[in-house]
């Protein structure tokens, strides 16, 4: 245990963000560089090194949190990095993007603010990169087996890295022009600068992983032909079918899915575009959907110079404290103020969009909404609560309904789907097609980055065993495992 009195003598302290008026003028990460290191040793000392660390259960990766907390407290950054990488291929991604279910399961969180696990994690990995502790780990020998990974998001990259290190020759296929999937084009630069992805890709290249961009399996290459070319295939194509809003006026210009809007802003930061074709500059922006993707749209609109930003959520506003029906160590639904929300805008809860209104040129100009409430488990509109708000740009951020079925991949492979439209798999993450496996959101449905990495690592074990008859690779989860929720 780092410090037996750490949680008694030190209060929770989190990473400091840059002033709002400064950060909305650029696209750099919102946190003050270097603000964590002076405080992180004390924060790590708050870990009680519980006899039964429930943070392990909160995190699907099974991160060895008490161990690397202890090393961080002692400022043994190399040992901390080794423990961190023992369960997580990309802690710099999760340390920035994960909502930290491990902290919700922290035993200290029963009656005190939880340990800042996420901040400790990102401090360790950033220090490891600075010290040169993150190096390529090429395999000692090659197996002679080949694997294709479809999709380069966190699940695909995790599976590819594990299989490469096991000695297989791995090629990752990505339909976009750069590697990273939603990490690249779905996550704004102010949440995670893309240099973090780039240096991981270089590490993987040095280990032997091959990357093929601008190749969409199903359209550019027939899935059956790909299967014949490789000894095994991992489908990690994500759940990219956005949930639509079929109300009158949906076809007006200026209404876009979040994943149509966000990638263009990222392409500007990559230098591909001078100005985003879809921009919030000078417009009244409405974001429909109260989750993290919606918050990303809010932060992006601020930086593009929106006249106003309003975020709508159909559900009631969550409480600021854990409710009795969401007991520890489950992941509670709490009112969350992200960095994007700190920057301004209005958040409206318990409302539903009835229709959009446009001008004579077919451009959206207003959104009509009505308040809603749950009665007997059903959502009902409240009469007399209708109102209109200006809307010249609307982004739909209401989640995703399943993997893409329009590109031909599912049909060409002959894959079976489950009741929710995800690719069905067995206990080894294998599909109904021999040698074809599925990992991440394509099999689980929309989920968190830690679940995606855990799925990639677990599917890699199934593939390795298929190819060689046995496997020493870890499998932190089963396909049927679910988060600690009520």
Automatic annotation (TrEMBL):
Its EC number is 1.4.1.13. It catalyses: 2 L-glutamate + NADP(+) = L-glutamine + 2-oxoglutarate + NADPH + H(+). One of its GO terms (biological process) is glutamate biosynthetic process. Residues 38-69 form the 4Fe-4S ferredoxin-type domain. It comes from the Bacteria. The keyword NADP applies. It is an enzyme of class 1 (oxidoreductase). Transmembrane segments: none annotated. Its cofactor is [4Fe-4S] cluster. Keywords: 4Fe-4S, Amino-acid biosynthesis, Glutamate biosynthesis, Iron, Iron-sulfur, Metal-binding, NADP, Oxidoreductase. Pathway: Amino-acid biosynthesis; L-glutamate biosynthesis via GLT pathway; L-glutamate from 2-oxoglutarate and L-glutamine (NADP(+) route): step 1/1. PROSITE patterns: 4FE4S_FER_2 (PS51379). The keyword NADP applies. One of its GO terms (molecular function) is oxidoreductase activity, acting on the CH-NH2 group of donors, NAD or NADP as acceptor. Pfam families: Fer4_20, Pyr_redox_2. This is Glutamate synthase [NADPH] small chain. It comes from Streptomyces chattanoogensis. The gene is gltD.
């Amino acid at each position: 245990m780092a410090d037996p009195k750490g949680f008694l003598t030190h209060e929770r302290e989190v990473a400091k963000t840059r002033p709002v008026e400064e950060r909305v003028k650029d696209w750099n990460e919102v946190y003050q560089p270097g603000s964590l290191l002076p405080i992180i040793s004390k924060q790590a000392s708050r870990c009680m090194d519980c006899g039964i660390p429930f943070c392990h259960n909160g995190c699907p990766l099974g991160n060895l949190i008490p161990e690397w907390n202890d090393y961080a407290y002692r400022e043994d950054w190399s040992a901390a990095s080794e423990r961190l990488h023992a369960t997580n291929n990309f802690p710099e991604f999760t340390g920035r993007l994960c909502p930290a279910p491990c902290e919700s399961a922290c035993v200290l969180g029963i009656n005190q603010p939880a340990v800042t696990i996420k901040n400790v994690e990102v401090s360790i990995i950033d220090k490891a990169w600075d010290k040169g502790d993150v190096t390529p780990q090429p395999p000692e020998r090659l197996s002679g087996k080949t694997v294709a990974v479809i999709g380069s998001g966190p699940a695909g990259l995790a599976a590819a890295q594990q299989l490469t290190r096991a000695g297989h020759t791995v090629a990752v296929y990505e339909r976009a022009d750069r590697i990273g999937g939603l990490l690249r084009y779905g996550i704004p630069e102010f949440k995670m600068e893309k240099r973090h992805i780039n240096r991981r890709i270089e590490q993987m290249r040095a280990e032997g992983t091959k990357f093929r961009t601008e190749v969409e399996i199903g359209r550019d290459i027939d899935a059956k032909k790909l299967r014949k070319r490789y000894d095994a295939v991992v489908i990690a194509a994500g759940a990219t079918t956005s949930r639509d809003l079929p109300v009158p006026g949906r076809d007006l210009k200026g209404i876009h899915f979040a994943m149509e809007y966000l990638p263009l802003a990222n392409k500007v930061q990559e230098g591909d575009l001078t100005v985003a074709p879809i921009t919030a500059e000078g417009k009244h922006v409405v974001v429909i959907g109260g989750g993290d993707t919606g918050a990303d749209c809010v932060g992006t609109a601020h930086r593009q110079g929106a006249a106003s930003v309003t975020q709508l959520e159909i559900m009631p506003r969550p409480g600021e404290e854990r409710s009795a029906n969401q007991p520890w160590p489950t992941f509670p639904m709490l009112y969350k103020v992200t960095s994007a929300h700190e920057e301004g805008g209005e958040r409206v809860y318990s409302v539903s969009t009835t229709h959009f209104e446009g001008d004579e040129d077919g451009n959206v100009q207003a959104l009509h909404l009505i308040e809603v409430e749950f009665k007997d488990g059903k959502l009902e509109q409240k009469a007399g609560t209708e109102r209109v708000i200006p809307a010249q740009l609307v982004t739909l951020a209401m989640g995703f309904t399943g993997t893409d079925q329009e590109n031909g991949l599912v049909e060409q492979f002959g894959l079976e789907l489950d009741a929710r439209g995800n690719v069905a798999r067995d206990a080894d993450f294998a599909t109904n097609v021999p040698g074809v496996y599925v990992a991440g959101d394509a099999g689980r449905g929309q989920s968190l980055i830690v679940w995606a990495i855990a799925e990639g690592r677990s599917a890699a074990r199934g593939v390795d065993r298929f190819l060689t008859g046995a496997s020493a690779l870890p499998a932190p989860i089963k396909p049927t495992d679910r988060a600690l929720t009520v």
